[in-house]
Write a structure and sequence with these properties.
Blueprint: H1 2-5, H2 10-13, E1 17-20, H3 30-45, E2 49-54, H4 64-77, E3 86-87, H5 92-104, E4 108-111, H6 115-127, E5 153-156, E6 163-168, E7 172-177, E8 185-187, H7 195-205, E9 210-214, H8 218-235, E10 242-246, E11 249-250, H9 266-271, H10 277-286, H11 299-305, E12 316-317, H12 320-333, H13 336-347, H14 353-364, H15 370-381, H16 390-395, H17 400-412, H18 419-433, H19 437-449, H20 457-464, H21 466-476
Parallel strand pairs: 1-2, 2-3, 9-10, 11-12
Antiparallel strand pairs: 4-5, 5-8, 6-7
Helix pairs in contact: 3-11, 5-7, 7-8, 10-12, 13-14, 13-15, 14-15, 17-19, 17-21, 18-20, 20-21
The chain binds one RNA strand through helix 6, strand 7, helix 7, helix 8 and strand 12.
RNA sequence: GGCCCCUUCGUCUAAGGGUUAGGACGCGGCCCUUUCACGGCUGAAAUACGGGUUCGAAUCCCGUAGGGGUCACCA
């Protein structure tokens, strides 16, 4: 959208601040990763900054493992942020301070209702099929009526009349009647802040200009805005942020992404599926965002092209096949030594990185993920006698072993052990025998790799080296 | 249930009143070829439904259906 990127003046652009604010109750899942990506891209596109804030107000559910997984996942994807991560739990005092300001200015009030009172209230609302929301029982009540020594929460006094419209950069104009928003709790009875207060204060203090998050938060924007406007009234300089609520990602069956459907952490895509970070980056970028016919988009280009106007409004489904296709593309582009290292880690002890690097050009074109590269590399490190797959065994039936003997004898005399020479020699032999090249190549493949599929057979001969290759042929020849 | 959002091939998307509705993944076929891939060509495949507005609607409006989100002293 033109108004997104071109109408903002340079000074304003330099001030763009986005944030990624996960709650560390699990790994960095695919939806969170995409939210982080969009925030990062938007900030980079506008030459702004992005901050990472760990929303760990709920100490019971937050774990250090989850925090580590999130930070590691972001790093793996190359989504760096411009300041050390902020921990929301460190800022409880500041949150309480704002709650008190709100209270003193009459924008909030003490509520002495107990959890039991509230549950009873909801029960009745359910029975009467009425909307479930706080009924404002302490909103205008005289504090003298408060039970002596009782604990209280602090609730925001939200407007009851009129309506609020936000201009969401993805969802468009969204309007909600203010009566829909009840007086929710901003400070708990134990004095700790609730999420609703904490986000608003933290976003303001960090100078966040654009709140880009999942659209499960769209309703929250209407709850958070009253705090912002009240504080703006009290002390000024609390501008409304620009909101962009991006649609959620669903599983292949259209239902909300859950563990059952592969709402896995990004490390699972790295470790279990053998996905490259640049592939996941590109896939996530294209999931819910489009730019004409463009499919393969590099990191640098993504920064150049990304805009909120290209984000669709409907939820998108996760498709592993497409991710793998993209991964195949990036595998072919990736540096051979880098891949060799990644593959060696997976193979373990017997892997030789140097050999893998040498073999990588012919290995990687046949794979969609690192697991397939590992499989394809198996023949390089196999020990004699090779184990044959069933199909490979079949290739050695009939007169195949006799032919292998001839090939062995012929190649044994070959001193120039290069692909081109070996091919010429073998073709000459095939012609001399009146056979198609396949008649020789397939038994060779079986003898050399124990499999029916492999890189080109002359590449295999070279990679194995003269001695090992001849030994494998000899072992299977009649 | 209240409120909010969404709906183009199976999937990701393009087309912001006039196109044979385009591309990509996946699927089928052909070519290349020593296997498997890669690559190239090609085929099938969509505007949820019903009404309007308009000379003309995937596009604008209304309704219906379906899907999703959210309604905590969770975040």
């Amino acid at each position: 959208m033109a108004s997104e990127s071109s109408s903002a003046d340079a000074a304003q652009r330099a001030q763009v601040v986005t944030r990624f604010a996960p709650s560390p109750t699990g790994y960095l899942h695919i939806g969170g990763a995409r939210t982080a990506l969009f925030n990062w891209l938007f900030a980079r596109h506008h030459g702004g900054r992005t901050v990472l804030r760990i929303e760990d107000t709920d100490r019971k559910r937050s774990t250090q493992d989850a925090i580590d997984a999130i930070i590691e996942g972001l790093a793996w994807l190359g989504l760096d942020y411009d300041a050390p991560p902020l921990f929301q739990s460190d800022r409880a005092e500041r949150h309480a301070e704002v709650a008190l300001q709100l209270l003193q200015a009459g924008h909030a009030y003490k509520c002495f209702a107990t959890p039991e009172d509230l549950e009873a209230m909801r029960e009745e609302q359910r029975a009467q099929k009425k909307p479930l929301r706080y009924d404002g029982r302490w909103r205008d009540r005289d504090l003298a009526e408060a039970p002596a020594g009782a604990l209280h929460t602090i609730r925001l006094k939200t407007p009851n009349e009129g309506e609020t419209t936000i201009h969401d950069r993805v969802q468009g104009f969204v309007t909600v009647r203010n009566e829909e928003i009840d007086d929710y709790i901003i400070l708990r009875a134990d004095g700790t802040p609730t999420y609703m207060l904490a986000v608003v204060v933290d976003d303001h203090d960090a100078g966040v200009t654009h709140v880009i998050r999942g659209d499960d938060h769209l309703n929250n924007a209407f709850r958070q805005l009253p705090i912002i406007r009240a504080m703006n009234e009290i002390e000024g300089h609390w501008p409304d942020p620009i909101y962009a609520h991006i649609p959620l990602i669903h599983g292949a069956d259209g239902a909300k992404l859950s563990k059952r459907h592969g709402a896995l952490g990004v490390e699972a895509y790295r470790d279990e599926f053998g996905i490259l970070p640049e592939a996941l980056f590109n896939y996530l970028l294209r999931l819910g965002w489009g730019h004409g016919d463009r499919e393969e988009i590099s990191r640098a280009e993504a920064i150049k092209l990304f805009d909120l106007g290209g984000v669709g409004k409907s939820p998108s489904r996760f498709d592993l096949k497409k991710l793998e296709n993209l991964n195949g593309h990036y595998l072919r582009e990736a540096d051979d030594a880098r891949l060799a290292q990644l593959v060696a880690e997976r193979i373990g002890q017997q892997a030789e990185e140097e050999l893998l690097t040498q073999a990588m050009p012919v290995l990687k074109v046949r794979a969609k993920n690192l697991n397939e590269v590992v499989e394809g590399a198996g023949f390089l490190f196999a020990k004699r006698p090779l184990v044959m797959t069933e199909k490979a065994g079949l290739l050695l039936e009939g007169d195949a072993r006799v032919i292998l003997r001839k090939i062995y004898e012929c190649l044994k005399g070959e001193n120039d052990w290069t692909s081109a020479t070996l091919e010429a020699t073998t073709k000459a032999l095939a012609e001399e025998q009146g056979l198609g090249l396949g008649k020789l190549a397939q038994p060779m493949r079986a003898a050399l790799t124990g499999s029916t599929t492999s890189p080109g057979i002359f590449d295999v001969l070279v990679l194995l080296g003269r001695d090992e290759a001849l030994a494998r042929l000899d072992a299977q020849a009649a």
